Amino acid sequence: MVGLFISFEGVDGVGKTTQVERLRQYLESRGRTVLVTREPGGTPLGLALRRLLLEGVTESNANSDGDANTTANAAPTDIAPRAEALIFAADRAQHVAETIRPALQRDEVVITDRYLDSSLAYQAGGRELTAREIRDLSLWATNNLLPVRTYLLDMDPAESHARLQHDEDRMESAGDDFQNRTRRAFLDLAEAEPERFRVIDAAQPIETVWTKIRVDIDDLLGYGEDSR
């Protein structure tokens, strides 16, 4: 690998999309080729899996013989935790094979909105599965590919969800206890890998958050004081 792999993590509503775009623009201004992607949904297969994960599955839309009225009124069925873990892993395996590794081999910077750590936080932390099983499954799916840097944008979930400007999806509507466990899981992951993670208080102004990211990326890439 000759490129640079960066991920952004955090509960929904912390501002990952904004900071991903800031970083993309900055690195391109420095002459780097940048690929921005996301999980779930970074490939055509991933988009189909993303719909299953975020919208859920109804008995009628799983049945090709269901009529339109039944489909529209059907409640989503629950996805079993192990099935959910396998769907995330399948999405990640395809994402790495089709999108991330080829870009890294072209010496590009890959920035992903969510990666392996989201599975650990949302599934092992939020849904109380074994962290070791989730991590082993994801590392197997990606052939042990991890980001060089992970920016964890941290915020109280009650505050971050107040920022959401769309209807809550299946993950976002899972409840306060789930969201708080997920946040705690993210922080535990960062504490366990301080060389990879940078934890940033996302309750700060957008410009303050961006400055912290830029200073760190300058250090990581050796741009020096001239860029500041």
TrEMBL record:
Catalytic activity annotation: dTMP + ATP = dTDP + ADP
Coiled coil: none
Residues in Thymidylate kinase-like domain copies: 8-213
Pfam families hit by this protein: Thymidylate_kin
InterPro entries, sorted: P-loop_NTPase, Thymidylate_kin-like_dom, Thymidylate_kin_CS, Thymidylate_kinase
EC numbers on record: 2.7.4.9
Keywords for this protein: ATP-binding, Kinase, Nucleotide biosynthesis, Nucleotide-binding, Transferase
PROSITE patterns attached to this UniProt entry: THYMIDYLATE_KINASE (PS01331)
Function of the molecule: Phosphorylation of dTMP to form dTDP in both de novo and salvage pathways of dTTP synthesis.
Family: Belongs to the thymidylate kinase family.
The protein's name in its UniProt record: Thymidylate kinase
Species in which this protein is naturally found: Bifidobacterium saimiriisciurei
Gene: tmk
